[in-house]
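REQUEST ID: PR-0412
SUBMITTED BY: lab tech R.K.
PRIORITY: routine
TASK: structure prediction, single protein chain
INPUT:
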Amino acid sequence: MTTTLSNIIAEVKTELSQYQTSGMLDEISLNNWAKRALKRFGNLVTVLQEKTVEVKNGRAKLPSDFYSLYAAARCEAKSYEVVEGTEDDLIDTFFVRMRKEANTVWNNQSNKFEQGEYTEITEKIYLRNGKTQVDVCFHKPKLLKLTRGIKKEVCHSRCKNLSKELTYSSPYEINIVGDYIQTNFEEGFIYLQFFALEKDEDGDIIIPENSNDQLVEYLTYHLKRKALESVWISDDDAVQNKIQWMMQQEKDAELKAMSAAKIESVSGYGWWETIQKRNRLRNNIYNF
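STATUS: complete
OUTPUT:
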């Protein structure tokens, strides 16, 4: 059974029900604490994702679940087609993206696109709760240079943009500062491949599985400890004792989870094997 972050938070709230019923547990804080804790495991718990972002006034907003960059390419919007619905629906800004990438060329004899020599990215955009579908085509992807001052921790160790051989001819540069990509061009589109925590179809974070569920155990203890600290009354010895015990349990669980993650990343078993398979599939589809 897949364990999600919502499952863990629900368990924590149940076990600390005396604080939950009094309104002393904040679900937003529980989510943020868990995400920060997962970041300690870095790329051991992330999967490859992709998205196209729009540059306005020299910057573009990063995806909310961005962890590290694998590839960034400037591309041009070529055309769009309203498959379902009407063009009036295009004013809606809420959409879900699905994408495919293929090498295509127009064949005058068959009057359709066929396999060709250049890369074209087709993005399916669903508007108004899926009632309207628009296919947007991007083409001419060109890898972007990274500015000299970019923080290396925002890039994956195998980031394509770190290669001078692949980016030396590009006149375009990017930097990543906080939640934004800064560019040396005012407007355009950037196709991103990036590592992020995996989510299910409802947008809930999926917790990678490993032997004995050490990561789930660590997150559970971590959230309990953080929750107790948030309601801690300085002269309440019972809460202080609980925090001390929880900290020790959390530390033990973290060491086991980190050890398991590193061992499985080397051996190729467990959650790391699953993550690597998913990343290979995505990388084969969206390859530069």
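NOTES: The longest strand covers residues 66-84.
REVIEWED BY: pending
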